[in-house]
Amino acid sequence: MKIRAINGFKDILPDEALRWQYMEKVARDIFERFGAREIRLPILEKTELFARSIGEATDIVEKEMYTFADKGITMRPEGTASLLRAFIEHGLHVQQPVQRLYTIGPMFRHERPQKGRLRQFHQMDVEVIGASEPQVDAELMAMGRMLLDELGITASLEINSLGCPDCRPGFRRRLVSFLEERRDQLCRDCSRRMDTNPLRVLDCKNPGCREQVQEAPSILDALCGPCDGHFAEVRRCLDSLAIDHRVNRFMVRGLDYYTRTTFEFITGDLGAQAAIGAGGRYDGLIEQLGGPPLPGIGFAMGMERIALLMAQQETSLPGPHADIFVAALGEAAAAYAFGLVHQLRRMGLKAAMDHSGRSLKAQMKQAGRTGAAFTLIIGDNELERGKATLRNMETREQESVPLLADATEQAHSLASRVRENS
Ligand SMILES: [Zn+2]
Ligand SMILES: [Zn+2]
After folding, report:
1. Which range marks the domain in which residue 138 is found?
2. pLDDT for 124-151, tens place per residue?
3. For position 115, what pLDDT does the model report?
4. How far is the CA of 193 from the centre of ligand 2 (A)?
5. Which of 249, 274, 272 has its CA nearest to residue 199?
6. Distance between Cα 386 and ligand 2 center (Å)
7. 377: exposed, middle or buried (C-beta count within 10 Å: 0-12, 13-18, 19+)?
8. Residues 57 and 130 in one domain
9. Is the residue at 6 inside a domain?
10. Ligand that lies nearest to the alpha carbon of residue 166, given by its number in the listed order
11. Confidence band (pLDDT; 50, 70, 90) for 235?
12. Which ligand does the CA of 163 lie closest to?
């Protein structure tokens, strides 16, 4: 019996991993352009951290976490809580009043696996802690937009404001009384959410619920003066950077800790409308987790979904191609090639050879599979005459090149030749 991976857990095979490497490379580059520094975090945290940050009454905490109940620990279902825990624990705010941090890694949620949604999934998270200015909100969205643009992915940006502890409770009461009258028409989940997390009814995907909430009061009409001003300024900043966005008053996000700005990057290219990145402001959360009273805002990008879109849109990737393949015929030639390939690698080239003494034809085939730009062909006779054949694999032109006794010198001359060509 073969042992297979667990349902919802997926291997990322080498061809696919190329895409992931490229995605991460572009992301790190962009995050760093915006001044963010990497922080690497553990996968296991105390369960209480997520209960206190994400919220007891959220789908995540209620039913999706992988928790080792006897140990009181949980595999992180998202990145923000862990990042803030580390931020507080190490007093990072003392170093710098505004911290921009990013982290990349796996998260775990026990959901029904579907296309682009796994139980172990990966996110790239960026958080800005210590700044409440609307410019920062717009800057984060600009960062997300830049990342998607550079990966060749089209997505629309939707934004909303969830208000603050001053204005949200009043809205919540108005919403609950609106929903009370329609409780019978709502799905079972929403009927339950009404008592625990009524805002979530607004973004229920059930068509019946969607229809019911069309006439629901809008949180944007209920914002207090400062929240209203903040939201207007965020939008003005986005306009000033020519970043298209649409206000979606039904977007509430699944986590309790959001305040004011929330946003999502949405694509229709994965079948149903799906968010590939989302985030928002969480101004009270750091204090709630026992830290200083600092504001914060962040977003996470779903890497599985981005990888799917990159595959669909055939985003061009830098290949894993070898720069040069050394085909050796005969024992002496193979021994020489063995040293030469090592020197080429030390010089930073991707060099490959065959170790099994196969025919020239078989080795040329192998050279083709590695995608090498050049193949150097060395036979025992050629080794004696101090000559080898260099073949340009693209143009198929061949030329005779001198073979130097010293493999290091030979590698130097080949390396400059290969670099000239690329
Ligand atoms: Zn407010
Ligand atoms: Zn519903």
Report:
1. 14-167+223-312
2. 999 999 999 999 999 999 999 999 999 9
3. 67
4. 9
5. 249
6. 78
7. buried
8. yes
9. no
10. 1
11. very high
12. 1
> Is the pLDDT assigned to residue 254 strictly greater than 70?
no
Q: Which residues surround ligand 1, an ion (CB under 5 A)?
A: 163-164, 166-167, 224, 227
Q: Tokens in use for 14?
A: 């080498």
Q: What distance in Å separates the CA atoms of residue 107 and residue 43, rounded to the nearest whole number?
A: 8
Ligand 2 centroid to residue 190 C-alpha, Å: 4
Q: How far is the CA of 194 from the centre of ligand 2 (A)?
A: 10
pLDDT the model gives residue 314: 78
Ligand 1 centroid to 234 CA: how many Å? 15
The pair of structure tokens assigned to 151 is 């990966």
pLDDT of residue 313: 84
Residue type, position 366, single letter: Q
DSSP state at residue 117: B
Please give the C-alpha separations between residue 264 and each of 141, 187, 242, 285, 299, in angstroms, as whole numbers.
Answer: 9, 24, 17, 20, 9
Number of domains in the chain: 2
pLDDT (average), residues 382-406: 92
| 350 and 265 inside one domain | no
Tokens representing residue 222 in the block: 């209920």
Find the largest Cα–Cα distance for the chain.
94
Residue 272 has pLDDT above 80, yes or no: no
Ligand 1 centre distance from Cα of residue 217 (Å)? 16
Give the whole-angstrom CA distance, residue 395 versus residue 57: 64
The pLDDT assigned to 270 comes to 81
Distance, CA 201 to ligand 2 centroid (Å)?
Answer: 6
Q: Report the separation in Å between the CA atom of 192 and the middle of ligand 2, taken as the mean of its atom positions.
A: 9
**Helices marked H in 183-302 — which ranges?**
188-196, 207-213, 219-222, 225-240, 285-288
- At 174, the amino acid letter reads R
pLDDT, residue 69, reads 84
Measured between alpha carbons, how far is 22 from 256 in angstroms, rounded to an integer? 33
Burial class of residue 293 (count of CB atoms within 10 Å of its CB; 0-12, 13-18, 19+): exposed
CATH classification of the domain holding 160: 3.30.930.10
How far apart CA 15 and CA 362 sit, in angstroms, is: 23
Give the closest ligand to the alpha carbon of residue 188.
Answer: 2
Same domain, 298 and 328: no
Ligand 1 centroid distance, CA of 190 (Å)? 25
Helix (H, G, I), strand (E, B) or coil at 211: helix
Query: DSSP secondary structure string, 386-412?
Result: TEEEEEETTT--EEEEE--SSHHHHHH
Q: How far is the CA of 357 from the centre of ligand 1 (A)?
A: 74
Helix ranges, 278-395 (H):
285-288, 303-312, 331-346, 360-370, 380-385
